[in-house]
Amino acid sequence: MKRNRVIFGIVLAAALALPACYKKPESLLADDARRKEIIEALVTNPAMRAQVIDRLIGPPEERSAVIDRVLKDESAAGDLIAKIIQQDRGKAIVASKVAADPTAKTFIRMLMLTGVMGESMTQQQADLLGYGEPFAYGNQTRTMHDLKKIGTIIDAFAKQHRQEEGPRYPVCYDFAELDACLGKKLPAGSLKDLRLKDAWGHPFQYHTDREGKDYILVSYASDGKYDELGKVGPTQSYDADIVLSDGDFIQWPGWIRKAEIR
Fold it and tell me: Cα dist. 218→13, 122, 244 in Å?
């Protein structure tokens, strides 16, 4: 392991030095374009990405130093973690190893609050680890933001196709995943850069009446089961569906202020 780190250090140093041998690392990182190149090189190369993850979950003395530096910038921390563990392997490593380490409590809590660990474990597993609330809150918040973004695109479509009797949303009478109907009714590429699954990994569902006067976007939440819209308004259950209708949440977690979701 020590030998691998030495080799990695030499390779990375050489990579950084080639374009500008006289520059110190701080000078290279100060350049926005160069910094992006370095970061991309680290996270897109499998070997380098593994080294980054090893630093984050390695020996306590090394991990603590890295985590302390990451946590100094909360917004950057969420972006960094999302990038590092966007691969299934990365999420699995973090969930299985970091969650079990008592020295990483602050770090694992931050991971959960970003909503990037939803598919790595179940709500029950998070509860057993003592992180049930941040895990649920992160997943719910991320999911609500994603639903809102999709809803904004649907609303924009309706404004362009407004009729005398009111907006006409893309008609998809069958309750189905977004790419089954909605994606085909919207202009090409409308949903390209958006997540079509909630933070737990369940595909969002879309449904309208036959005239397209109303629509609902639904996340099945932690249990992955449809609630049949039996309860509307703020809910108090992790398993309760999250529902957006005509641009507004009609069913959502009561501990989240829906007005703050953009």
Answer: 48, 19, 7
Q: Which residue range(s) make up the domain with 92?
A: 2-113
Q: Which residues pair with 247 in a beta bridge?
A: none
Cα(214)–Cα(116) distance, integer angstroms: 31
- The whole-angstrom separation of Cα 194 and Cα 189 is 10
For 197-244, how does the pLDDT look when each residue is reduced to its tens digit (9 = 90+)? Answer: 999 999 999 999 998 999 999 999 999 999 887 678 999 999 999 999
**What is the per-residue burial (b if ≥16 Cβ within 10 Å, else e) of 41-54?**
ebbeeeebbebbbb
143 lies in the same domain as 256: yes
pLDDT of 162: 77
Residue 10's contacts (CB-CB under 8 Å, 6 or more residues apart) are none
Question: Do 88 and 191 reside in the same domain of the chain?
Answer: no
- What lies within 8 Å, CB to CB, of 218 at 6+ separation is 204, 205, 206, 207, 226, 241, 242, 243, 244
Residues 6+ apart with CB under 8 A from 54: none
| 50 and 85 Cβ atoms separated by less than 8 Å | no
Q: How many CB atoms lie within 10 A of CB 219?
A: 27
Cut 0.70: pTM above it: no
Least confident residue range of 70-84, 103-117, 133-147, 175-189: 70-84
For 98-105, the CB contacts below 8 A with 24+ separation are 98/56, 98/57, 99/129, 99/131, 101/57, 101/60, 103/60, 103/63, 103/64, 104/57, 104/63, 104/67
What pLDDT shows up at residue 250? 95
In a domain, residue 195? The reply is: yes
Q: Which parts of 130-169 fold into alpha helices (H)?
A: 132-160
Same domain, 94 and 186: no
Between 161 and 15, the higher pLDDT residue: 161
